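new request in #modeling-help
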Amino acid sequence: MLRLNNIRKSYEGTEILKGISIDVKDGEIVSILGPSGSGKTTLLNIILGITDPSDGQIIFNEKDITNVSMEKRGFNIVFQDYALFPNLNAYNNIVYGLKNKPNTSTKEEVEELIDLLDLRKHIDKNIENLSGGQKQRVALARTLVMKPKILLLDEPLSALDGVIKESIKDRIKQIAKEFNLTIIIVTHDPEEALTLSDKVLILNEGKVSQYSTPKEIIDTPKNQFIEKFILNQLSIKRNNIFTLFGGSYA
Ligand SMILES: Nc1ncnc2c1ncn2[C@@H]1O[C@H](COP(=O)(O)OP(=O)(O)O)[C@@H](O)[C@H]1O
Ligand SMILES: [Mg+2]
């Protein structure tokens, strides 16, 4: 289990995160949802270990890892722009990080991931010849072969449209289940957060506005901000959201 305990972060005297406390269970998909500039990426980077919190603790499996380096934490991130190597083909991008690293995927496990992410047909192609959705799946595969203890995704779907988006969402759900992998996803899209996650952390003005299941957020939004800026932004009727997107809200 991952526990954030009263995480605070200030930049140049301005407090961006004002005491964030949440628990994330193993295998859960959690979305961090909030408007642009609300501190979502900052919080993700603090969990990853590339940004230090100004105050508070990060506890992972009952150990305080607040001062543990990113490498030793063993979490991993897929950045918004994929950050793939343009001069390597899809396969070599996927296996790039494996060289001489212990506790990562075997050749067979790499092959399984290629199939799971439906990349078999594209494996010899150069990155520049792949579509956005294919690049995103290569980026996911490249991160998953490292066997992260927690997978972090920063706006993984925002550059994708319609059908592609739905298919990647399904893969993300499948990966969480199959590997019992905790996945934390940053998004500014309420529809995405509510249809993809077990729990949604709504950030507003540096604080937790609500942290609950999509059903609880829809049925009992805690405040006006959620009513106005989250639920009213949904392009489809609340009652239909889960049936339309194949979720479990009945
Ligand atoms: N390294 C930094 N130095 C100074 N200010 C920063 C830095 N990183 C982020 N910020 C500020 O913190 C706020 C939250 O940023 P960010 O976490 O990127 O928000 P989000 O991902 O929700 O859009 C913004 O006002 C941003 O300008
Ligand atoms: Mg961001």
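bot summary: The chain has a mean pLDDT of 91.
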